[in-house]
Design a protein that fits this description.
Elements: E1 15-20, H1 28-38, E2 45-50, H2 66-69, H3 75-86, E3 89-93, H4 103-117, H5 123-127, E4 131-138, H6 147-159, E5 163-171, H7 179-182, E6 202-203, H8 215-226
Parallel strand pairs: 1-2, 1-3, 3-4, 4-5
Antiparallel strand pairs: 5-6
Bound molecules: flavin mononucleotide.
The site of flavin mononucleotide (FMN) has 19 residues, from helix 1 and strand 4.
InterPro entries: Flavoprotein-like_sf, FMN_Rdtase-like_dom, ISF_SsuE-like
Region (Disordered): 171-208
Domain NADPH-dependent FMN reductase-like: 16-140
Length: 227
């Protein structure tokens, strides 16, 4: 996986939109994203939107039909659309669910296809040049398990001529051990990860340790160091 490509420090006009797609408000992914946001320069504006608060309709592929190109969508869709267009930096905050993003996050991205079809929006043109970032957490100790998530988002960014900022990955808790309640045997990940001293708490998509607070500026520092 290539290193972060983002090389422009969040400038005076930077507007970060954090799109929360997890199924657990206040979970470890959101906590990690908030830690990373703490490292942003004060001048960078930030907005947080929880997809569960703005449920999108099931996606219908109506490309090329009048239904697919018309309609401003409902209130929730309009909030997400306007916030997406307004942002300079889009942060996809999703736990790792089955090696990729959550269903809510995927549905949000599916709606991009609809928005791209609306001539009145010039969606593709207006997304060009923004930066996409990802923050995720998983139960697995192997960062490569998040390759599908990182690869899908990186390619999606490229498809829209956006920059790819990179993935910040943390280890969240595994499935709670319910063996006492269910009688089922505990699985290998049915417990929080062992906090081993020296184990990097957070890393990028290559497994390289990244301090959460430095995430949004790490690419900038790496690029500066190479000059
Ligand atoms: C539906 C579902 C699918 C999951 N799939 C994976 C997975 O493929 N790999 C993994 O390491 N963890 C997986 N997990 C565990 C979560 O990624 C992990 O617990 C994460 O830290 C949860 O984030 P949260 O604390 O923000 O809710 C899955 C959890 C759920 C609920």
């Amino acid at each position: 996986m290539p290193p972060p490509t983002h090389s422009v420090p969040p400038g005076p006009g930077a507007r970060f939109l954090f799109v929360l797609g997890g199924g657990r408000p206040g979970g470890s992914t959101e906590a990690l994203a908030r830690r990373a946001a703490d490292g942003l320069p004060d001048r960078a504006a930030r907005r947080w939107l929880r997809l569960a608060d703005h449920p999108l309709p099931a996606f219908e592929d109506a490309r090329g039909t009048p239904a697919g190109t018309a309609g401003a969508g409902d209130r929730h869709e309009r909030v997400l659309l306007e916030a997406t267009l307004e942002a300079t930096d889009l942060v996809i905050v999703s736990p790792l669910y089955w090696y990729t993003v959550s269903a809510a996050t995927k549905l949000y991205l599916d709606h991009w296809s609809r928005w791209m079809d609306r001539a009145d929006l010039a969606y593709r043109e207006r997304m060009r040049g923004k930066t996409m970032w990802a923050v995720s957490s998983c139960a697995s100790p192997d960062p490569a398990d998040a390759d599908p998530l990182a690869g899908m988002l990186r390619r999606t960014a490229r498809h829209l001529d956006m920059e790819w900022g990179g993935l910040l990955l943390g280890r969240g808790p595994g499935r709670p051990d319910r063996s006492a309640v269910t009688g089922l045997p505990a699985g290998p990940r049915d417990r929080p990860p062992a906090a081993r001293p020296g184990e990097p708490a957070t890393c990028d998509s290559t497994g390289r340790p990244v301090e959460a607070r430095a995430f949004f500026t790490a690419g900038v520092l790496a690029a500066a160091a190479q000059r």
